[in-house]
Amino acid sequence: MSCILNIETSTDVCSIAVSKDGACVFERVDHSGPNHAVKLGVYVDEALAFVDSHLMTLDAVAVSSGPGSYTGLRIGVSMAKGVCYGRGIKLLGVPTLRLLAVPVLLTKEIEDDALLCPMLDARRMEVYAQILDRSLKEVRPVMADVVDENTYKEFLDKHPVYFFGNGAAKCMPVINHKNARLIKGIEPLAKNMFPLSERLFFDEQFEDVAYFVPFYLKDFVAKPSKKLL
């Protein structure tokens, strides 16, 4: 039994959702961004008012922990910390690239041996990507990739690999492999955080509210192969 406020601000989309025992009971989404500084506070106030008016007890706040845009993550994490301090509740950090994989697993039929490659766009042919299996176990850590025909070849030669996220479409002509699959329209949304935030809550994998910081895209520039998640 849990009630969690989920906050997602890692890209231009701003979204929040309240989960009650794994079900969505409240949601707000803005696609016109980046408007996080304007929209997020209003959405969180509405969510907290909904929770209180329905006599729910908020147990935790989950926030997307990156990688993602500096401004978006900073605003999201600051808001999450404020709610945690104000209500004396726990903080959960949900990795953004794993979050991107959730709607793929819930809505798409993929092969048993398939791998997932969520991607966030950077400049030119650069993306920030991770390789996961169908259980969301990490096969390759988050890296800043300059994509060419060989970047994911070791995985593509052995498995179907599904590419998705806002960095995926531009890479497909370059990757050009028979095992490469593109899934369009996948974006990080708070309503898809539920399976991950619920698991973190029940496993008691809480973050330190005072010292928690997200992983910003800029953190990959100096050390592009650093394992962050």
Output mean pLDDT: 93
Q: Element order, helices and strands? A: EEEHEHEHEEEHEHEHH
**What is the approximate shape?**
elongated
Strand segment count: 10
Based on secondary structure, the structural category is alpha/beta
Contiguous helical run count:
7
Q: Could you give the order of strands across the largest sheet?
A: 3-2-1-4-5
Rg from alpha-carbon coordinates: 17 Å
Amino- and carboxy-terminal Cα gap: 27 Å
How would you describe what is shown here?
There is one protein chain. By secondary structure, the protein is α/β, with parallel strands linked by helices. The protein has seven helices and ten strands. The strands form two sheets. It has a five-stranded mixed beta sheet with strand order 3-2-1-4-5, sandwiched between helices. Strand 1 and strand 2 form a beta hairpin. Helix 1 runs parallel beside helix 2.
List keywords for this structure.
229 residues, alpha/beta, 5-stranded mixed beta sheet, 7 helices, disordered C terminus
Topology, element by element:
Elements lengths: L2 E6 L5 E7 L2 E8 L5 H18 L6 E5 L5 H18 L2 E5 L1 H12 L7 E7 L4 E7 L5 E9 L6 H4 L4 E4 L7 H4 L4 E3 L11 H9 L16 H4 L7
Parallel strand pairs: 1-4, 4-5, 6-9, 9-10
Antiparallel strand pairs: 1-2, 2-3, 6-7, 7-8
Helix pairs in contact: 1-2
